[in-house]
Write a structure and sequence with these properties.
191 residues, mainly beta, 9-stranded mixed β-sheet, 4-stranded antiparallel β-sheet, 17 strands, globular
Length: 191
């Protein structure tokens, strides 16, 4: 048994439970927390579940529910989990093809050192928005994903050495490359 925040959708015949409810997504006391983020026109849903360690929240896992049950999505493991087991894997968008997009924090020991963007197409997860032109992006925000699999968001602009240039870029990932978008001419920026 469990209690807490239960995600659900109505498929026309009644409520259907969504989310992750086992293992590290359920506290020893049975507490769970699943929050739906988006649902598409085909009834696929994405959301986030709290992670627990020793009864304490230790981050979030992202999931997609395709009608057959939840599947974890996002960049996971390795640098995407702290040395103490914390992780922040967030989902921010879902398209009508069933692809999802979001972010995963990166860690050095227990310190957050970055936030990488990702797209999951149902066959695997790809890191996106690593930079555009001469600029590097270490802390990415993902705002949306269209039905062709193009994602968009923003990120603080860094040089290749990782030094801040005190600017933010809007970006578009076209399925292959990341491009700076928006007002980028000399009258709007110094580069």
């Amino acid at each position: 048994d469990y209690f807490g925040t239960i995600a659900w959708r109505d498929d026309g015949s009644g409520p259907v439970q969504l989310g992750l409810y086992d293992g590290g997504n359920r506290a020893d006391t049975g507490l769970v927390s699943n929050e739906p983020v988006a649902i598409n026109t085909h009834g696929l849903a994405v959301g986030e579940a709290a992670r627990y360690q020793n009864g304490v929240v230790s981050g979030t896992d992202a999931w997609i529910d395709n009608g057959s049950g939840p599947i974890r999505v996002g960049l996971r493991g390795g640098d995407y989990e702290s040395s103490s087991g914390q992780a922040s894997i967030r989902v921010g968008a879902l398209n009508n093809a069933g692809w999802s997009a979001g972010t995963s924090n990166t860690y050095d020991g227990d310190s957050v050192v970055g936030r990488h963007g990702w797209i999951d197409n149902g066959n695997g997860t790809t890191r996106i928005a690593q930079g555009a032109g001469p600029y590097r992006y270490d802390f990415v925000s993902v705002f949306g994903l269209d039905d062709q699999g193009q994602a968009y968001g923003s990120a603080p602009r860094l040089n290749q050495a990782g030094e801040s240039l005190n600017r933010n870029d809007a970006w578009l990932y076209d399925g292959t490359d990341t491009h700076r978008i928006g007002l980028t001419g000399p009258e709007f920026t110094d580069a």
